[in-house]
Write a structure and sequence with these properties.
alpha/beta, Rossmann fold, 5-stranded parallel beta sheet, 5-stranded mixed beta sheet
Length: about 300
């Protein structure tokens, strides 16, 4: 009898142990599912963030990236709120800053995103998981993929990037075939009574024109604006920075103080009607929503018959 009893007890113990392990594994799975978090490797170290964020506050720069990935924004920076193309998309989002802590608390966010120059980061972290980025630390498309990782939507972000690069490269080939491979393009902006010229990574369509389409910038632009990203200029030297084609960004559409000067009127690009005016408030960004709009605009203008 005893020789049968020992194997039976061993089998019984193994069954109980297996059931116990199975139960523990299930509990762990339920706990992970219930917690609903992922660990995002931010530039400042790992951060636990919601796996499916529902109430995001964007303090700077990245509203378009978040919206492009279908994630709800409850609080947003003033620049994004002022974008006329996003009026409907952000109609229910409150305008906030890094100093309006009480308003942010009332919004009950589950994630806060911004640039690393925002104030009160320690206080913001007490409200919700907070992730910040250094502008330009990675290129603009890698930045979107990083936002995708943060929002647990990396595949969607990567798919858009792959498709966009293909579309932009093809458009660049078409445009160079039309206007000439050595033709130069400038991006000029008038903001608060000051003129600026931009390099290849400062929004306003510069990433598409110079990085993806590989169009050329005038020598003066390359010498002064490429490294810092932008360069302030006066009306007197404006002709030196104007390419064969110009994207002219304006925040005040009613201000024609530059366009009415003889200096401006005598610039070859102006005489040839190769200046394409854009609304600075909507052309300012470099997120997927804006980039798609900019790409369509460039194709329409440069490839017009």
């Amino acid at each position: 009898m005893k020789k049968f009893l020992v194997p039976f007890l061993l089998v019984f113990v193994l069954i109980i142990s297996a059931c116990s392990n199975s139960s523990t594994d299930k509990d762990k799975g339920k706990s992970a599912k219930k917690s609903g978090t992922i660990t995002y490797e931010s530039q400042n170290g790992p951060v636990k963030v919601p796996a499916d964020p529902k109430r995001v506050v964007v303090l700077s720069s990245f509203a378009g990236n978040v919206m492009a990935l279908g994630v709800n924004i409850v609080g947003v920076d003033a620049w994004s709120k002022a974008n006329p193309r996003w009026t409907d998309k952000l109609k229910d989002a409150e305008e906030v800053t890094d100093e309006s802590l009480e308003k942010i608390i009332e919004l009950n966010p589950d994630l806060i995103i911004g640039l690393d120059n925002v104030k009160n980061i320690d206080k913001l972290k007490e409200i919700a998981p907070t992730v910040v980025y250094t502008y330009g630390k990675v290129d603009y498309l890698t930045q979107h993929i990083e936002i995708g990782k943060l929002l647990n939507k990396e595949k969607e972000a990567q798919a858009w990037v792959d498709d966009f690069k293909e579309r932009a490269a093809q458009a660049g080939e078409d445009i160079k075939a039309k206007i000439g491979a050595d033709t130069t393009v400038s991006v000029i902006e008038k903001f608060d009574k000051q003129l600026y010229v931009y390099g290849n990574n400062w929004g306003r369509g510069t990433e598409i024109l110079y990085q993806e389409m590989k169009l050329k910038m005038p020598k003066k632009v390359e010498e002064n604006a490429l490294k810092p990203g932008y360069f302030a200029i006066s009306l007197e030297v404006l002709p030196d920075f104007m390419g064969d084609y110009v994207i002219f960004s304006k925040f005040d559409q009613t201000d024609t103080s530059v366009e009415t000067t003889e200096t401006y009127k005598n610039i070859p690009a102006v005489k040839n009607q190769h200046v394409y005016e854009v609304n600075g408030s909507e052309f300012y960004f470099n997120d997927p929503l804006t980039l798609d709009m900019q790409l369509d605009f460039f194709k329409e203008k440069f490839l017009a018959n």
